[in-house]
Amino acid sequence: MTALKKLAVIGDPIDHSLSPKIHKLFAESSGLDISYEAIQVEKKDFVSAVTGLFDSGYEGLNVTLPLKEDAFNYANELSEESKLSGSVNTLWKEGSFICADTTDGRGLVKDLTSKNISLSNLEVVILGAGGSARAIIPSLLKEKPSSITIANRTFSKAEELAKKFSLPDNQLKAVSTSQPLDCSPDLVINTTSAGVLNQEMDLPSNIFSQDTCVYDLSYSREETSFIMRAKNSGSNVCYDGIGMLIQQAALSFEIWTKHKPKTDINKAALL
Ligand code: ATR
Description:
Number of helices: 10
Bound molecules: 2'-monophosphoadenosine-5'-diphosphate
């Protein structure tokens, strides 16, 4: 039997996190002895709380809202993807160094791949230009879609993000969600917090069609309001973000334990 590995997810609020359940299922299927708790950490206490956790023997932490930026600033060693995306969701200790990675973007790509969606040559529209959009763009770009358009309520934020990630051979487009799109997207990814906030969201009038695949980073037991809207507008292939949640967790688990866990977790059992 290996020694107990102490892991946790930190955030505020953290009560509803599904990560403890997911990681315990990973540990069971991998035959590993881990503990994984959900610990509430207020933003103002980030440094003392995280230092205390690592000092008391925690080997890995997942970091969720609103602490991702604090984790980015705290880490000594950032992965390339963390640097590019400005985002961190996984911390661990190597010697005296705190290392950091973000597994959100790779988790999304893995989930899309498992659904037989290959991004190469797709016209992709990302809705939203906040932290969640920034976290996934580097991984999406690596898959060489034919275009990425960032559509946001606040146009200037979409423009800023498009500028940040545009490369000479890969220009990202920025648009306002109040204007119709000038492309027919193959894949629409919703990264906005409108659903979680229970708010209405303006969308380009021509965003959905029968040929559009829709992916909502949010998830809930019932269909999300975004997916309901997409289906009502004719899109039949729609997914929520539960698969990405599981895949990003699996990548964190692999970083900490060097084991690739089984990811065939049932959504209903989880929610
Ligand atoms: P996160 O880290 O979850 O991405 P964020 O950085 O606050 O959170 O970004 C939230 C995103 O959701 C933003 O793009 C925001 O649009 P604005 O930039 O215009 O604020 C978007 N969003 C939130 N509520 C929305 C709503 N009701 N309608 C449209 N977009 C919304």
